[in-house]
Amino acid sequence: MDFSLSDEQKAILEVVEEVCEKEFAPQSSEISEKGEFPLQNIKKLAELDLFGITIPEEYGGSGMDLLTWVLVSERISKACATTGLIFGANLLCTYPLLRFGTEEQKKKFLPPLARGESLGAFALTEPEAGSDAGNVQTTAKKDKDGYILNGNKIFITNGEVADTYIVIANMDKKRGARGLTAFIVEKGREGFSFGQHFNKMGLSALPNVELIFNNCKVPLENLLYKEKRGFRVAMETFAAGRIGVGIGALGVAEAAFEKAKEYSKERVQFGKPISSFEAVQHMLADMATKIEASKNLLYYAAWLLDRGKPFEKFASMGKLYASETAMEVSIKAVQIFGGYGYMKDYPVERYMREAKLFEIIEGTSEIQRGIIANFVLKE
Amino acid sequence: MEIIVCIKQVPDTEELHKVKINSETRTLIREGIKNIINPFDENAIEEALRLREKIGGRVTVISMGPPQAETSLRKALAMGVDRAILLSDKSFAGSDTLATSYTLAMAIKKLGKFDLILSGKQAIDGDTAQVGPGLAEWLNLPQITYARKIEVNEKKIRAERTLEDSFELVESPLPALITVTKEINEPRYPSLKGVLRARKEKIIIWTAKDLKINEKRTGLEGSATRVIKVFTPPSPSGGEIISGETSKVAENLIKKLEEHRII
Ligand SMILES: Cc1cc2nc3c(=O)[nH]c(=O)nc-3n(C[C@H](O)[C@H](O)[C@H](O)COP(=O)(O)OP(=O)(O)OC[C@H]3O[C@@H](n4cnc5c(N)ncnc54)[C@H](O)[C@@H]3O)c2cc1C
């Protein structure tokens, strides 16, 4: 078992860490306070070629593995969860394009995504279809030279800022999930517009937008994979995407832990730093242990995926564990900060609000437990 | 345009408080300290890359230093320079600014034709600001120091030279040597593709033999200066406040200055 990073990975992380520390972290509270899309961060990620990590060189990327993406994404999320989620949502577009796209589709859509000139998004969720992903009501009707899409998607990350959308619609409602079909829809297509911008508990700078399809015509060549095989596209994208969501949660947990640890050494009560009290020490010990456990699950899932081995169970475990860890760690971080932790002057209350999201997206914790139980009961 | 950038590897500014001095050799103890490219030299690299992007050409970085200076050259390659040369030889150790500028000059002569040499205004460890000007002297070149802006057209270069409370606009024919300040630009971060490319590239290493140099002019032997003592100056203490009527204060002050034979 080899846990060492390659020299290439180390060299890349050195640059990423510097950028995160100098450019992203100092801005992250302000970005969230103002709720402004962090365009300057996205430009920086593009300049550094980070959007193309997992995209092969022939499509304008660097052709590296998902583990490298994971290591980078962890650092970005630790410095700025908003930026990490934008980066992560992008993978939900590039991953299915790479996995299911035709040569023409890859040549057309991947290079601008790899260069970070355009962003990607993945749209499944609807008012009636959340955990019950098969219950998609958006319809796709075939006509002679394409498909006509009708319906609404909600909460879509990178909505409006993205140029390339993977959209799940139903071609045959009677067949439920077996009618689902995936399409590549470009921004600017007639009949495709944006509705509500959702107001959230945290991460206010992250775009989460309603997509509206009103007789939106999509050409035949924008069908992703096969007709009525969209459920598979969605499920495989979610499986890999869970590693990405888990790593976002891990980043938040690491940031909260670090702040709490530093604070506990500085804050003096009863004449001693609070880190000398066993109750605080035990909190820190639990936080650190769960962070390491999450990290190992997620790295392992990415490592398996990179080797073409079944990774799905570990991706779900990693996502579940990392998101619950982020929640627990950020709550404890607030506790360690005491009254100051409840104040907006310190970032730990923000981490708490950010952490909650990870227990919900890409399959709630309940859904993850269901998936994991399915795996283990079959084994 | 052939541009040469001279860079130095120095201990990280943020870790400078950790740097200790070996009291016997009077040199820095570098173990355990992260090394970086001298920040002003990063500005010089950035300026060279911008010039190349604008008018084409080639950028070569040169560094004299121990083998570990390779990491700084690799970062320069990742930022986008075309070639990196390390001047490394045991006999170069202990060089002062005279010997260093001589060694760099010999390497540049070996390289042949060039249009412009850039470097940072000074290194943050030694703070002498002498190597750039020294190099210009060895190569018999015009020099413009402390440039905060440069412009190249045809065979001429124009630079804004930072002075204490103003700037000078200086023009020089090419080839020339320019040292730059922090204000000149914001150095780029190396991109992922740059990092990957840099890992595959070879760093050229030249020793004393390769440079065909007069060894009496390099290293300790070629150094005109010796560091006798390195110490942290005690913070000034005492001091005296003269107060009262202005004219009396002035009188008093003059008396004191005369007493101390200052005037
Ligand atoms: C900030 C944000 C960003 C998002 N980004 C995207 C995006 O980019 N693309 C996209 O398609 N979607 C996105 N979503 C949607 C997200 O994936 C869904 O909200 C999530 O899957 C849950 O669906 P739901 O909200 O409909 O909740 P519901 O499915 O209604 O769940 C409500 C509760 O019921 C529980 N529950 C439901 N079914 C079961 C069951 N079978 N067993 C046990 N418990 C169950 C759930 O666990 C949960 O606790 C985003 C959401 C948010 C908040």
Radius of gyration of chain B, rounded? 22 Å
Task: Give me the secondary-structure category of chain A.
Answer: alpha+beta
Rg from Cα of chain A? 21 Å
Proportion of residues in helical segments of chain A: 40-55%
Distance, first to last CA of chain B: 54 Å
Structural class of chain B: alpha/beta
Order of helices and strands of chain A: HHHHHHEEEEEEEEHEEHHHH
Number of helices of chain A: 11
What ligands does this structure carry?
A: flavin-adenine dinucleotide
Q: How would you classify the quaternary structure?
A: heterodimer
Question: Which CATH C-level class of the largest domain in chain A is it?
Answer: Mainly Alpha
CATH superfamily membership of the largest domain in chain A:
Butyryl-CoA Dehydrogenase, subunit A, domain 3
β content of chain B, as a range?
A: 15-25%
Biggest sheet character of chain A = 4 strands, mixed
Tell me the CATH topology of the largest domain in chain A: Butyryl-CoA Dehydrogenase, subunit A, domain 3
CATH topology assignment of chain B: Rossmann fold
Query: Spatial order of the strands in the main sheet of chain A?
Result: 1-4-5-8
Annotated CATH architecture of chain B: 3-Layer(aba) Sandwich
Helix content of chain B: 25-40%
